[in-house]
Structures are given as structure tokens and as C-alpha cells.
Amino acid sequence: xxxxxxxxxxxxxxxxAVLLGLVLLMAFPxxxxxxxxxxxxxxxxxxGNGETGAIGDCNGVTVVEAELNLAVRAELEKLLPEGTYYExxxxxxxxxxxxxxxxxxxxxxxxxHHNGSTNTSADYTQSFVTQKNDKIFASYIHPSLVxxxxxxDKGIKNDGYGMTVYGALPGVLxxxxxxxxxxxxxxxxxxxxxxxxxxVHKEAQAMYDxxxxxxxxxxxxxxxxxx
Length: 227
Fold this sequence. Notes:
Elements: H1 2-27, E1 41-45, E2 55-58, E3 61-64, H2 65-79, E4 85-87, H3 94-103, E5 108-115, E6 125-129, H4 132-149, E7 153-158, E8 171-178, H5 182-192, H6 199-216
Parallel strand pairs: 1-4, 1-5, 5-8, 6-7
Antiparallel strand pairs: 2-3, 6-8
Helix pairs in contact: 2-6, 4-6
């Protein structure tokens, strides 16, 4: 009889322990792992610091590239997990900006730009790289932008002057579309007026999707990349 009671007490103790474990699990769920774990994405909003970049026009309203670059960065940050991105300081030189990104321990770098032309109907997607690991990184980001925006694809070009020239991070300089294109300029005005599903939103989502695919492929590493 004593052994029988001991047996039932042990069952009750085990049952209580299991229930307590379930309660704690529900109260403090374990976060699912994501490809962004342990990564830091340096986001450079091109120009700024007194530099406007290209200037567009929508029915007499001026659209400044530097402001558009900041807007895309802000939308991308809304999509990325907290703590996985770093805002590159808008310093005076590209080299200083890259150094700033590397000092933060970034894994990759996206320099966000939008093209300009005197032809207000010129519009296409193009990206720039310099080194081998830039090309690998861009092969995930650029096609995602092309698919999302549906503009002519001018490809990934070797760049001898942009931010990807400097440092050791896998990086890409994106020119997702032309701010001087009338549709592109007016799209940004729509975005500022609260319209959803604009080019700004699509561009940010495309960058997120490209980053997700890149890190999922385990080619991004953790911390600073090396060329």
C-alpha cells in the first residue's frame, strides 16, 4: 500500500511538472530562428549631408533623391528584425561611410540610390558592384528589385567609383529606378501622402526578400565579410 501511494505521488509530481512547463512555454515562447540571426545589415541612404542627389519633378513639386533614399531605408527597417540593421552615418565621403559600416561590425552593405536623367521618361533598374563578394550579394538583391518593380533590367555593372570600391564588406549600390522619371517622382509624392503599395514599399520589400534569400543560402557569414 505504501509503494502504491508513492507511485501515485510520483505521477502527480511529474504531471504538475509537465503542466508547469507548458504554462511557462506559453508565457515565454522561444523565438524561432531566422536567417538574420547574428547578422547586421548596414543601410546607407545615399547622399544627404547637404547633398541632394538627383532632383525630380511631379507636376511642379520637387522630389529630392536624398529624401527618397531615406524613405526606402525607413520602410526596409520596418521589415527587418530589431537589432539586425545599422544606419550608416551620412558622412562626407563614400570611404568614410564604408569605414563607419565596418566599424559597426556589419555583415553586408546596401547603398540605396535612385538614378537621374534629363529625360523624364527614362526609367530602369540597375545595380553596381566592384569585387567578387559584391557580385554574389548583388545576385540576390538586384533580381528581387527587378521582379518587384517590373522595370527594364540594365543588370549588375562593375563600379569603379561607388561605395563598393572601399572596405571589405559584401556590398551593392542600388539604382532601383529614376527619381527624375515623372512616374517615379509622383509615386514618391503618393507615398508621402499615405498611399500604400508604392514603389517605395515594393523596393523595401524586394530588398528584404533578397537579404532573406542571401542569408538563407549561408553565404553571408557573420560579422565583417572579406573579399
